[in-house]
Specification:
By secondary structure, the protein is α+β, with helices and mostly antiparallel strands. Helices cover 32% and strands 31% of the residues. Strands 1, 2, 3, 4, 5, 6, 7, 8, 9 and 10 form a ten-stranded mixed β-sheet that branches. 34% of the residues are buried.
């Protein structure tokens, strides 16, 4: 029986986005505050995913052995380090979140049956690497607050209540929406980036967060005048709004996840997945609500 297991680890380290072939002014323009000397630090959280058959003891791998390998090959070397100087791989390609994930894979692959490396720089930014050369995924997490009412204009109040329950009440209700936007791209062999993080954040803020925040979606967002703003429809609309702006940053939009409440969330993927133009992550590319 095939099974995937995950092991969590942590390390604290600093890094600096700075290229010696650029002037101080050019580095500052390209990397912003991240170019400042002597650098800045993060409490990194690492998830190592491995797959294999269950053995006679009901395990894919002995987790004590896995813990030892991760400590010896990664965390013991990186903890309380200056990443730019910790490993030779980071002298050629800057230690961005996505590139750290890639190099961690390279360090662990000879020892463990890896299927994914996921690295959190902080709770609102993380990278996924699946072992595909320079391809990586980067996720930005953000939020907005909005109200909505679930009701089709062509149905009576009673009919809408039968379909949507309390959500059809005439004055609507609100949520603090949690939004995760995942992009895919090729890691630049020098900067370590799949896209300019500042530009990615700017696109998400400009096309989604600012227009949606503190609105009544049915009345303030033209798209939802005729489209019921369910979590699924909101996620689809956000996906469609972001495809081109994110492409302009040099990356490709891969997935939008919208968390309406702790009990309800949905995910939508771009058509690139279905067309085979990007490599799917471990999740199945379907729209789900749980």
């Amino acid at each position: 029986m095939k099974c995937t297991i995950n092991r969590r680890a942590e390390f604290s380290a600093s890094h600096r986005y700075w290229l010696p072939e650029l002037t101080d002014a050019e580095n500052a323009q390209r990397f912003g505050l991240c170019a400042r000397a002597p650098g800045h630090g993060h409490n990194y959280v690492l998830y190592v995913s491995m797959a294999g058959d269950l053995d006679e003891y009901g395990m894919v791998l002995n987790l004590s052995d896995v813990k030892h390998v991760i400590k010896q090959e990664v965390t013991q070397q990186l903890n309380f380090s200056f990443l730019n100087e910790a490993w030779p791989e980071f002298t050629q390609t800057l230690p961005t979140t996505e590139n750290i994930a890639r190099v961690v894979w390279q360090r662990l692959a000879p020892h463990l049956p890896l299927v994914r490396i996921q690295l959190y720089e902080h709770p609102e930014l993380w990278a996924d690497y699946l072992g595909n050369d320079m391809e990586a995924f980067l996720t930005i997490s953000t939020h907005f607050s909005a109200a909505h009412r679930l009701a089709r204009p062509d149905l009576s109040y009673e009919e809408n209540c039968e379909i949507y329950g309390k959500c059809a009440r005439p004055n609507g209700h609100g949520h603090n929406y949690h939004l995760e936007v995942t992009v895919k791209g090729q890691i630049d062999p020098r900067t370590g980036m799949i896209a300019d993080l500042v530009e990615l954040q700017k696109a998400i803020d400009e096309f989604v967060v600012e227009p949606f925040d503190h609105t009544f979606l049915n009345k303030d967002i033209a798209y939802f005048e005729q489209v019921v703003p369910t979590a699924e429809n909101i996620a689809v609309h956000i996906r469609d709004l972001l495809v081109e702006p994110i492409r302009a940053t040099g990356a490709e939009l891969y997935k939008v996840k919208l968390v309406e409440s702790p009990n309800n969330s949905c995910e939508v993927y771009t058509n690139l997945v279905a067309e085979g133009r990007v490599t799917a992550q471990a999740e199945t590319p379907v729209l789900v609500q749980v």
